[in-house]
Amino acid sequence: MADRNRTIRPSRVLAATAAAALAATGLTACGGGSGSSSSSTTLVVAEWTNAAAVQETQAIDAAFEKANPGVKIKLETAPTTAGAWPALQSSLEASKGVDVLAQFAQSPEKYAPAGSGVTVGGTPALISSGQLLDLSKQSFMSRFDSTTQKFAMGYKDGIYGVTMAEYVNNSGMFYKKDLLAKYGLSVPTTFDEFISDLKTLKSKGLTPLYVAGKDGIQNIVWMGIYNQLMMQDKPASEATSVFMAKDNAFLNGTQNWNSALYQDAANRYEQIMQYIEPNAGGVSFASAPGTWSAKTDDYPFFVDGSFDGNTIAADNPALNFGMMAIPGTDNAAWNRADLAPDLAWTVPTWSKHQDLALKYLDFFTQQTNYEAWVKATGSLSTQTAVPTPTLKWTDWLQTNASKGFPGTTLPWLPANVGTGNPAGGPTLTETKPFGSKDLLAALDDSAKAYTAAVKK
Amino acid sequence: MSTSPFGTRRTRRWIPWLSILVPSVGWLTFGLYPSLATVYYSLTEYSGVPGTPMNYCGLCNYRNLFTSNYSQVSDAVVATLKYTAGVTVLQIGVGLGLALLLQRRRFGYGLYRALIFMPQIFSVTIVGVLFSLLLDPSSGPAEQILHSLTGGSSAFLGDASVSIWLIVLVNVWMFSGYTMLVYIAGLRRIPLELYEAASLDGCGPIRRFTKITWPMLAPATTVNVFLTAIGSLGEYALILVMTQGQYKTQTIGMFMFNSAFGVNPDLGLGSTLAMVQFVFTAAIGGVLLWRLRRREVAL
């Protein structure tokens, strides 16, 4: 099943280079094994590459080793680009060589009902086949907001991971405050205001919008808008039921990719895309934050998730920028942030050092450690006692993130729907302005493909 | 009892069997077993996530290739054929040209040959990332060069009309040195008397090439064409690094990798695509080899 609402995590070129080499040569199969000796125990921890997250994890690991003499932590990492992270994860699972494994947090919607004939894959498959430990009774779970934890990694009565991070992913957009001020523009709150700003900026000779189109980051606009249209003014607590209803409607044939809501979203997406950098199709996800931050006199808006906020700040400390949700609808109240629960730590049931792994999670989630971690990553806090950090670019988030809703996934699809199959929605690298296909026509193709894919 | 470095007569009897046994076990373990497992996985619904059920489903994955996944498969076949044809034709042309230029044993030529061969030893990933940076339309030099020469611009790897050809060029840049070396070896086996006789008969350089060099290079051409085409038919690593199969660059190999080891892996579908790739490669490779060998005989 394609998973297009999960935008690729940040990675730097060198990290991508190293780990993609492993993926390309198949050497990831030699991934870490957990071993112990009489003098020391090695705890293997694995997470995908997000430079800030990895750096902070290493700092916490060092503190854990100091507090637990005789314990060594081996941290395995790989970027999510070029298939490196899935390859590392597969090899670690196959060799049962990991004790604490990062997973992308899920949603209840991921578990298709038995009668649908759709089999779950990825993390839900690990959970439903009993390979991850139920953490719901662990004392450290009480530090976290139980609703978020249940939503992200809950299955039946258990919670199979501790969700550490939450970002504005779909609908995320950065903006340069000084450029907006220079042209007398305020942060847009409705779709019309946004288009008007884009038009004004274009008339001043600027390229209003920057996006890493080579890696499909335009999905953030597309999925952000249709999620906002779907959720409208419903409270975040209704997200699961709204999205489950959508999934059932797809399965029953009462809704499809060419339904009115998606056509409306497509029209809005196309209007916004008129203002992107003309060659955005060749811009890579790895280089985009650096390029955007360096070009202070152009590209006022940048489509990207909040996970890149600290990267941008580090690339150009002098840049005065902010982060907001794309105003995809005509109603300001509906234009909320689409929140994506992100990194969740899990403990495999076959871990050789389960007790130590749980002790590690207890240590990792202690308030001081967690505070440092969210500050380093720019994540929204999922702990009740830890506020979302105040950073130079998080002013909009401080006010508005709490109004957001947890984002949707794709409709239920059989696992053997191949990569790029339009049943999972239009492939935006093939539609205008990145390709030649009209988005409305692509929606029709997707609707046909979805119907064919789920036909029993 | 006779003595020898290989033990007694009785133990010597086992040496041949042992010599066969060791590589046979290696082949059975690392060659035959994975191949048979791939065939079996292609007949199952299996995510590849350890511990999850593997359900035998007969030809369901093969059926899906012609129904729900048909457009991806046909696009992948087209991309594979474009890629293979482009790489093979260009690499043979460039490799031959370089061989003709650098075949002589003169001072400094060895250094040029080494420099041209050098990209072959670089990691595919390093090369892929390097060219991705060069071709970045916002920050790479390629865009500036194109703009200064033509006034135009391009998304390069983000433009479906050129992306696969750019990867073809990178592949040719990497591996032409190898093709050149095979051709140089071939050129040095051509008797000089043939050229002397042709010169006496008044043949110019073009006729000498078409009537002597090219025909006499037939065995080297067979090796080069066959190896280049087979390598290209299975290519995914360079594509993975440069575009991840986006913008019409998803070859069968790339489709297989994405399906088997992507974000939500499906080893059943991935294995089915591996079987398709095997048949595709065997068919094209077989026809190529048959034609090239016939050409050698005819010449």
Question: What portion of residues of chain B is helical?
Answer: over 70%
- Taken as a percent bin, the fraction of beta residues of chain A is 5-15%
The major β-sheet of chain B equals: 2 strands, antiparallel
The total count of strands of chain A amounts to 14
Order of helices and strands of chain A: HEHEHEHHEEEEEHHEHHHHEHEEEHHHEH
Terminal CA distance of chain B = 59 Å
Helix amount of chain A, in percent?
A: 25-40%
Q: For the record, what CATH class of chain B applies?
A: Mainly Alpha
Largest sheet composition of chain A: 5 strands, mixed
Oligomeric description of these chains: heterodimer
What form of chain B results from the Cα inertia axes?
Answer: globular
Describe the structure in your own words.
- The complex is a heterodimer of chains A (456) and B (299).
- Chain A has helices at residues 13-25, 51-67, 84-94, 122-128, 146-153, 177-182, 191-203, 219-231, 239-252, 260-273, 288-294, 309-315, 354-364, 367-377, 395-400, 439-454, and strands at residues 41-48, 71-78, 100-104, 154-155, 158-159, 162-163, 166-168, 172-176, 209-211, 301-303, 321-325, 338-341, 343-346, 405-406.
- With 456 residues, chain A is of the alpha/beta class.
- Chain A has two domains: 13-168 and 342-387, D-Maltodextrin-Binding Protein, domain 2; 172-339 and 409-454, Periplasmic binding protein-like II (D-Maltodextrin-Binding Protein, domain 2, 3-Layer(aba) Sandwich).
- In chain A, the strands form four sheets. Chain A has a five-stranded mixed beta sheet with strand order 2-1-3-13-6, sandwiched between helices. In chain A, strands 9-10-8-11 form a four-stranded mixed beta sheet. A three-stranded mixed beta sheet of chain A has the order 7-12-14.
- In chain A, strand 1 (41-48), helix 2 and strand 2 (71-78) form a beta-alpha-beta unit.
- The longest helix of chain A has 17 residues, at 51-67.
- The radius of gyration of chain A is 22 Å and the shape is globular.
- Residues 1-38 of chain A have low confidence and may be disordered.
- The longest helix of chain B is centred in the N-terminal third of the chain and has 33 residues, at 70-102.
- Chain B has one domain (70-298): MetI-like (MetI-like fold), CATH 1.10.3720.
- With 299 residues, chain B is an all-alpha fold.
- In chain B, helix 4 (70-102) runs antiparallel to helix 11 (218-233) and helix 4 (70-102) crosses helix 13 (252-261).
- Chain B has 14 helices and two strands; from the N terminus they run ααββαααααααααααα.
- Chain B has helices at 9-12, 14-41, 60-66, 70-102, 109-117, 124-134, 141-150, 163-187, 192-200, 205-216, 218-233, 237-242, 252-261, 267-298, and strands at residues 44-45, 55-56.
- The model of chain B has no long low-confidence stretch (mean pLDDT 91).
- The chains are: A alpha/beta (456), B mainly alpha (299).
